[in-house]
């Protein structure tokens, strides 16, 4: 391998510079290794030429040779004796993929190799970060040796890049599952469009690094603009949904700021081929993002929890893209050997933040639904108690007085008097079922025992195993109603003779298990029944589930499980 430590350099552009006979004696002689900015040779947006002279030894004749310029910042064309042997990115127009600082190796045509002095001309354009030939020294050598150096140099960044692409693919598949679960949610479609746009951009960059995929300006621009379009739509829908029903001025200003930031960034990306416009609009985007941050911070000071979440999203965006925007002006973060820069993790962080926001939103919806269901059930209980009082104190008393009058006027053994007595008993039973008195000052265990004692049936035996007497008033009320409904079904429809009830709980969960030895029933066929639906609704009100299965006693077994956090 022949290292090339010195070169002739000229800042400017002319295709004649690639001609091996061109006179470069007036060019500046430089030592390779420093970037343009470090050596005060040029900056972002400039194009310059390097010219090397190398003599191929006789012993290399017949060998496959290659030329390595080291790391290129950022796009280049490589000429061997005036013949183009490779290129990276595009110089006409001046553009290229960001974060492609790899150890480049270009094969030399065997027919162009002879044991004499050759001229290597490298045309370099800087569109991002450091410009020129930086890092490793350029060299000419046997292809196998240069490729070995390339593999050793790129083993570590390639490992992280492959891992990142794997995470993108996994999260993308999870996003497809999310779309299938809620296909009518437009924000999910925008988000997945943004995420897959990010995946395609990073995948295209990864393929260029790992497989030396040829650069296509059109494909890169289409993917990038599509990504920013979905990104803008997603953010706007997210903000609109987050502040739905709000009339605060700062929320409206925030939406307006995001429109400006997204539009400016989209135009910036769309005009990458014209550097001054891209840099200007990128700066406008950062001004808008700064304004949004100021609005959010002012609301965080007011202890607005929603603003804290949005500030986290804003911080991720800012930390990801400020270095990149600044790199279009002057080097801030080196591109060399950075295959997975901070911005490339943006999609993964964004989907995590979105998942947190979505989970928080779903939790809020479920909490509100349980609270609403609790109000509904409380209203039901109050109405049942009122009806029970009316039946007991009003209707039952009126029927009782009517029976007493009939008893005085007619024989008390008459059919009419006996019928009224049965009506009074039925009214009292209905009133009791509507509003049982057992829970008034009693624990759940005491109420269940009292209920079983009142059944007073030799053909039906109940067994209670409570590790605790009860939970709290609301939970005890709903569990008692479930117990009533299950016992009633077991006796009336299942012809059960034995019932087992157990209540257990730990610091986080509670279990209420009921099992009977009757005929059992198919829950799928009976799920439309009012009683089973009532059991399911009451379990959901507790923030839990009701699970039916075949019991140990060969009948039905019901297990109600709930979490203590849900109850709190």
Description:
This protein is an alpha+beta fold and 568 residues long. It folds into 3 domains: 2-150, Galactose-binding domain-like (Jelly Rolls, Sandwich); 154-368, Rhopdopsin 7-helix transmembrane proteins; 438-568, Heat Shock Protein 90. 52% of the residues lie in helices and 18% in strands. It has 13 helices and 18 strands. The strands form 4 sheets. It has a 6-stranded antiparallel sheet, with no helix packed on it. Strands 1, 5, 10, 12 and 13 form a 5-stranded antiparallel sheet that branches. A hairpin with a 5-residue loop joins strand 17 (545-550) and strand 18. Helix 6 packs antiparallel against helix 7 (346-409).
Defining key terms:
six-stranded antiparallel beta sheet, elongated, single chain, 13 helices, 18 strands, 568 residues, Heat Shock Protein 90, five-stranded antiparallel beta sheet, 3 domains, alpha+beta, Jelly Rolls, Rhopdopsin 7-helix transmembrane proteins
Average pLDDT number = 76
Rounded to an integer in angstroms, the radius of gyration calculated over CA atoms is 39 Å
Output the number of helix runs.
13
Structural shape: elongated
CATH topology of the largest domain: Rhopdopsin 7-helix transmembrane proteins
């Amino acid at each position: 391998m022949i290292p090339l430590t010195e070169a002739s350099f000229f800042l400017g552009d002319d295709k004649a510079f690639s001609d091996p006979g061109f006179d470069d004696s007036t060019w500046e002689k430089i030592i390779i290794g420093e970037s343009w900015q470090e050596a005060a040779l040029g900056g972002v947006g400039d194009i310059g030429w390097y010219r090397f002279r190398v003599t191929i030894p006789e012993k290399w004749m017949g060998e496959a040779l290659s030329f390595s310029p080291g790391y290129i910042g950022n796009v280049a064309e490589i000429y061997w004796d005036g013949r183009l042997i490779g290129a990276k990115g595009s110089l006409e127009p001046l553009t290229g993929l960001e974060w492609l600082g790899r150890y480049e190796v270009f094969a030399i045509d065997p027919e162009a190799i002879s044991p004499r002095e050759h001229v290597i001309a490298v045309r370099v354009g800087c569109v991002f970060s450091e410009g020129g030939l930086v890092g490793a020294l350029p060299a000419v050598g046997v292809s196998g040796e240069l490729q070995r150096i390339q593999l050793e140099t790129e083993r570590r960044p390639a490992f992280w890049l492959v891992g990142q692409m794997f995470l993108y693919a996994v999260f993308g598949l999870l996003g497809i599952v999310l779309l299938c679960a809620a296909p009518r949610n437009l924000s999910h479609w925008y988000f997945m469009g943004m995420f897959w746009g990010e995946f395609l951009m990073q995948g295209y960059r990864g393929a260029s690094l790992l497989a030396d995929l040829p650069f296509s300006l059109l494909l890169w621009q289409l993917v990038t603009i599509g990504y920013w379009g979905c990104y803008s739509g997603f953010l706007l829908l997210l903000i609109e949904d987050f502040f739905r029903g709000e009339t605060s001025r700062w929320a409206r200003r925030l939406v307006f700021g995001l429109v400006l930031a997204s539009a400016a960034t989209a135009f910036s990306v769309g005009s990458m081929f014209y550097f001054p416009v891209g840099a200007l609009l990128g700066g406008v985007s950062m001004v808008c993002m700064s304004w949004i941050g100021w609005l959010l911070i002012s609301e965080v000071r007011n202890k607005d929890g929603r603003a804290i979440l949005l500030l986290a999203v804003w911080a991720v965006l800012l930390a990801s893209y400020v270095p990149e925007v600044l790199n279009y002006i002057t080097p801030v973060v080196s591109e060399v050997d950075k295959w997975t820069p901070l911005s490339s993790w943006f999609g993964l962080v964004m989907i995590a933040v979105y998942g947190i926001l979505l989970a928080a939103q779903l939790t809020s919806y479920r909490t509100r639904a349980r609270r609403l269901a609790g109000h509904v059930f409380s209203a039901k209980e109050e109405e049942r108690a009122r009806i029970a009082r009316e039946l007991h104190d009003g209707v039952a008393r009126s029927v009782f007085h009517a029976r007493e009058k009939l008893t005085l006027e007619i024989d008390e053994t008459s059919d009419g008097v006996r019928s009224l007595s049965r009506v009074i008993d039925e009214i009292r039973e209905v009133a009791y079922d509507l509003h049982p008195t057992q829970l008034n000052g009693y624990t759940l265990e005491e109420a269940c025992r009292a209920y079983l004692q009142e059944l007073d049936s030799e053909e039906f035996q109940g067994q209670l195993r409570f590790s605790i007497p009860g939970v709290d008033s609301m939970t005890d009320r709903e569990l008692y109603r479930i117990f009533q409904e299950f016992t009633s079904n077991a006796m009336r429809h299942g012809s059960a003779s034995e019932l087992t009830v157990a209540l257990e709980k730990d610091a986080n969960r509670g279990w209420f298990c009921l099992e009977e030895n009757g005929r059992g029933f198919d829950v799928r066929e009976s799920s439309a029944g009012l009683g089973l639906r009532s059991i399911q609704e009451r379990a959901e009100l507790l923030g839990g589930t009701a699970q039916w299965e075949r019991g140990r006693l060969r009948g039905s077994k019901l297990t109600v499980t709930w979490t203590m956090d849900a109850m709190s």
